[in-house]
Amino acid sequence: xxxxxxxxxxxxxxxxxxxxxxxxxxxxxxxxxxxxxxxxxxxxxxxxxxxxxxxxxxxxxxxxxxxxxxxxxxxxxxxxxxxxxxxxxxxxxxxxxxxxxxxx
Length: 104
Prior knowledge:
Helices cover 89% and strands 0% of the residues.
C-alpha cells in the first residue's frame, strides 16, 4: 500500500525528474566526447599533412632555385623531420590510446 501512496506523492516525481535530467546531461556529454575524439583525429591529420606538405614545398622551391647540389642537404633534413614526425605522432597516439583505455 505504501508503494501506491508514494506514486501519488511529489517526492518520486522530483526524483524521476532529477534522474531524467541526469540522463539528458550524460547523453549530451557522450555526444561531446565522441565529437572530441573525431576532432582530435582531424587535428592530427591536418597537422601531419601540413608538416609533410611544407617540406615538399621547400624541396620544390630549392630545386627550382638552385637545381644541382642545393636540394641534397634539404632532402636529408626532410628525411630527418619525417622521422621525428613519425616518432611524435606514434607517441601521441600511444598516449591517447592509454588515456582512452584507462578506467577512471
